[in-house]
Amino acid sequence: MDIRTLCLGILTMGDATGYEIKKTFEDRLDLIFHASYGSIYPALNKLTEEGLVSCRELSQVKRPDKKIYSITASGRYQFIDAIMKRPAADRFRSEFLAVLMFAHLLPASKISELIDERISDRAQKIENLDNECDSKLTDREKFLCNFGRTIYQAEIDYLKDYRHLLESDALMDSRAAD
Amino acid sequence: MDIRTLCLGILTMGDATGYEIKKTFEDRLDLIFHASYGSIYPALNKLTEEGLVSCRELSQVKRPDKKIYSITASGRYQFIDAIMKRPAADRFRSEFLAVLMFAHLLPASKISELIDERISDRAQKIENLDNECDSKLTDREKFLCNFGRTIYQAEIDYLKDYRHLLESDALMDSRAAD
DNA sequence: TTGCATCTGTATCGAACTGATATATATTGG
DNA sequence: CCAATATATATCAGTTCGATACAGATGCAA
User: Fold this and answer.
1) In chain A, which end has fewer C-beta atoms inside a 10 angstrom radius, N or C?
2) CB count, 10 Å around CB of B55?
3) In this structure, what CATH number is given to the domain that contains residue B76?
């Protein structure tokens, strides 16, 4: 599933401009999927060419025309087709964990700082989700929201419980270096 | 931190060929970071140009020469510099979760199947980590290995506990459609 | 023993995607 | 009153993926 397909999915929820689709990615899919203008606008052009979405232009004074996209019947079929297929594996990349892989090359204080920051970052993300969760309505959205909270909390708990493994490791190495 | 930098990091653990670096990504960084030949080989060329790694060629009979890369002193400094910087945010993309976002468009049976498969996939990943964890030695590696297990287990637990929210939702929608 | 899969090793290419940047104006809040 | 944020379009260079190509070695099962 590429961004083109997911734009189609967002349009099943109602007509939107490219700008609004970007916002939807940020507001409701932040946990799950990311997309930049550099992929959204070309995607919408291609979808239009292929007849999977239609586009009406709303001329505005002293601004670029607003282009409102709607999904077509054939677009809807194609989207259902796409989500019926087995989803590809998650893609995950964490610089934080990559750095920890080389913790022995850093001073112990740096490791502690890094973990402290990670914990407060995850806590912040949970707080954001808490706020969003209230206003969200469907069980489906609550499910995804709580999914995120659960995973973030599991990470915080793990870091708190086992950080000493890294911190003592680094400490020993730096002592050995003396 | 890009793949170029992480290749440098892998070379701090010992000399290696491009092929071996790829294997290291698969064997020891699978949880954390991914890289394909299409990024590794160009990265090594660029690192060589910049004098951050050196390369000696080992000619082999009826095979392309084996190129063994070593990190240089300046490469080592540059790598430490890179990991001292604040790590960028994780990048995460999950087609599985994206599909769940549109669960209301799928039959309830499909949702159940999807979740069943996800649970066994995560269980498999935990089993793989269990096996690897034994043979790994340093506290640092154990830390990362158990990190992965913990997160995967949290996901399984969550899915088991709350899948009914999605399954009943889908059921209601399909009844409503009748 | 033959044949098939997997391993070792190099490398490139098109397509996908990111992140920054450009261009304009309106609105909101401190 | 000014700065930040929001609305709205779009492109571009650089990064990365996934597939593919080539080619012999090695292992293993029928």
Assistant:
1) C
2) 15
3) 1.10.10.10
